[in-house]
């Protein structure tokens, strides 16, 4: 779902067959209609329910709040090189001034100087910093990225995604999120 989730939307948290979320950020959720369709197509197991029910003339069912896939989906080994994933790798922060506003991306070695659009040459940057740096090299602009750009592993993006919890978390989801993190004594 791309819209902000609200309790009235009744989304279902989607877990892989190993009971881990398919994705932490964005959190893997389905609209309640999609979850019920998957139940009828025998593609998921219902793990938790909402108190809310839906019904038709011949059918009544509590809405699923957590479902797990019956077939395991192997996670991608390497994340896709997308604007969103660059921002997630850089924690939605300008790598020059730490701003979180008006983000775009910057080629550390400018394209006009032979820089390529790759994980190792692109960082999140706010528009003012991007304009200020322009086509200069980092040393010329006296703007060195806080973190050297790198190709993240899926694990890196999941870890970073945990710092940005979704706007809505139902109580029934908590046991299935972040369960692989270290517990406090």
What does this structure look like?
With 185 residues, this protein is an alpha+beta fold. Among the domains are: 12-69, no CATH class; 83-153, DNA Binding (I), subunit A, CATH 1.10.30. It is 19% helix and 21% strand. The chain is built from five helices and six strands; from the N terminus they run E-E-H-E-E-H-E-E-H-H-H. The protein has helices at 32-40, 83-89, 127-133, 138-141, 154-161; strands at 12-15, 29-30, 44-55, 60-69, 103-107, 122-126. Mean pLDDT is 87; it is low at 1-5. Residues 81-131 form the HNH nuclease domain. It comes from Ancylobacter tetraedralis. Keywords: Endonuclease, Hydrolase, Nuclease.
Quick synopsis:
The chain is α+β, with helices and mostly antiparallel strands and 185 residues long.
Order of helices and strands: EEHEEHEEHHH
* Gross geometry: elongated
The CATH topology of one domain corresponds to DNA Binding (I), subunit A
**Major sheet attributes:** 4 strands, mixed
Oligomer: single chain
Helix content: 10-25%
C-alpha Rg (nearest Å): 21 Å
Structural class, please? alpha+beta
Name the beta content range. Answer: 15-25%
User: Could you name the CATH class of one domain?
Assistant: Mainly Alpha
Search tags:
185 residues, alpha+beta, 4-stranded mixed sheet, two-stranded antiparallel ribbon, 5 helices, elongated, disordered N terminus, hydrolase, NA-targeting_endonuclease, HNH_nuc, 5-methylcytosine-specific restriction endonuclease McrA
């Amino acid at each position: 779902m791309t819209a902000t989730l609200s309790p009235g939307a009744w989304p279902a948290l989607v877990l892989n067959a190993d009971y881990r979320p398919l994705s932490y950020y964005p959190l893997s959720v389905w609209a309640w209609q999609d979850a019920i369709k998957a139940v009828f197509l025998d593609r998921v197991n219902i793990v938790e329910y909402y108190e809310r029910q839906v019904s038709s003339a011949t059918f009544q069912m509590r809405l699923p709040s957590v479902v797990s896939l019956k077939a395991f989906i192997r996670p991608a080994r390497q994340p896709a090189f997308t604007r969103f994933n660059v921002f997630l790798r850089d924690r939605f922060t300008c790598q020059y001034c730490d701003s979180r506003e008006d983000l775009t991306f910057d080629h550390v070695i400018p394209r006009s100087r032979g820089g390529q659009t790759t994980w190792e040459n692109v960082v999140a940057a706010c528009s003012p910093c991007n304009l200020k740096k322009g086509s200069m090299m980092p040393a010329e602009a006296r703007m060195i990225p806080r973190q050297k750009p790198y190709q993240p592993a899926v694990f890196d993006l999941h870890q970073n995604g945990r710092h940005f919890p979704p706007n809505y978390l139902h109580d029934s989801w908590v046991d299935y999120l972040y369960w692989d993190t270290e517990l406090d004594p």
